[in-house]
């Protein structure tokens, strides 16, 4: 899929080695102008630093929270690119590992942060997201492309392509689980993996939020 925006997926080694339903790699394979790099800290990563320091690029980090510019509200304008290519860095890891990746790389912390809002709830059926607003890497890329398209910063001609692949990936995983006795619970059928620990309704308010409340707007 061609895009005006360059997407750079920074994948934690755990995600690469242990997580089979890896939507970051799938998204990378779908986007023509994208890169995928493994690591935890990226201050000394040659390819990442070359992209950040290239004067022809406008590098930004998809990292919701206070101070992030909401593309869904038009808070990044095409005039700000001034002929530069928009380069979006995405941290691809389980939720408990995203913060350590961010804190390890000062060069990523210095990047302008972007976000989107009012996204469709996660379509994941084989993983449970730890809280509202959490999406898989593929879903986050889709929502970001929707916001970029509406802002005139990119052209997202086939939004059904990424989501269709996401659905087929999950259907395949469910078929594998149904056919694998070790992946089944004798009483409840196929197991589904959790993106984080399952929480009782009364326990959720006591848990530290992954994203600040600004995402709920």
Rg on CA atoms, Å: 18 Å
For the biggest β-sheet, the strand order reads 2-1-5-3-6-4
Strand content: 15-25%
Distance between the termini: 31 Å
Uncertain segments are 183-217
Q: What form results from the Cα inertia axes?
A: globular
Helix content: 25-40%
Tell me about the biggest sheet? 6 strands, parallel
Question: What is the mean pLDDT?
Answer: 76
Q: Give the topology string: H per helix, E per strand.
A: EHHEHEEEHHEHHEE
Class inferred from helices and paired strands:
alpha/beta
Number of distinct beta strands: 8
Number of helices: 7
Task: Provide the descriptors you would attach to this structure in a database record.
217 residues, 16% strand, alpha/beta, disordered C terminus, two-stranded antiparallel ribbon
How is this structure best summarized?
With 217 residues, the protein is an alpha/beta fold.
Descriptive overview:
This protein has 217 residues and is α/β, with parallel strands linked by helices. It has a domain at 6-120 and 140-158. It contains seven helices and eight strands; from the N terminus they run βααβαβββααβααββ. It has helices at 13-18, 23-30, 46-53, 95-104, 106-109, 137-150, 159-178; strands at 6-11, 34-38, 57-62, 69-70, 85-92, 113-115, 184-185, 189-190. It has a six-stranded parallel sheet. A two-stranded antiparallel ribbon has the order 7-8. The longest helix has 20 residues, at 159-178. It starts with 5 loop residues before the first strand and ends in a 27-residue tail after the last strand.
